[in-house]
Specification:
31% helix, alpha/beta, 4-stranded mixed β-sheet
């Protein structure tokens, strides 16, 4: 199951392009599981809002300390970088945000898996990012079946 989480006091969130979505729960109600990913979406100013949220920072840091899976795409890997979570890891991000990935080995790849952390460069790599997470959660066969069903070469 996937839960979209609002950082606000309201379940409705407006994205960078003005698209509104209704989230499933508020951040205060999140109880991460040991095998579940905490996934940070990209885009600005949303990624900055993620970085500015102290409760989220504490949640991400605790998840990381327990070697639980984390993922971030586009600008959002900078949140992990600022928290020191990428120190000693390989990572990628949207071009121009590399200097925020403190301690990381920056790779040019679209998707980078480094231990329990998956990062992706941006929207063009969203499907590969999602399939990497699916493979990690449900196995390569599941991810390959999804890929084939979506007619992805």
């Amino acid at each position: 199951p996937v839960k979209m989480v609002s950082l606000n006091a309201d379940l409705q969130v407006r994205g960078a392009h003005g698209v509104s979505v209704v989230c499933d729960c508020l951040l205060a109600d999140v109880q991460p599981t040991a095998d579940g990913y905490l996934i940070l979406p990209g885009g600005m100013p949303g990624a900055q809002h993620l970085a500015d949220n102290r409760h989220l920072a504490d949640l991400l840091t605790a998840h990381h300390r327990q070697q639980r899976p984390l993922a971030a795409i586009c600008a959002a890997p900078f949140v992990l970088g600022q928290l020191g979570i990428l120190d000693g890891e390989s990572a990628t991000c949207y071009p121009g945000f590399e200097h925020y990935l403190t301690g990381a080995a920056i790779l040019p790849d679209g998707v980078v898996q480094s231990h329990h952390i998956v990062t992706a460069k941006g929207p063009a790599f969203a499907l590969d990012f999602a399939l990497t997470l699916a493979a990690n959660l449900r196995g390569r066969t599941c991810a390959d079946n999804i890929r084939q069903g979506m007619l992805i070469a």
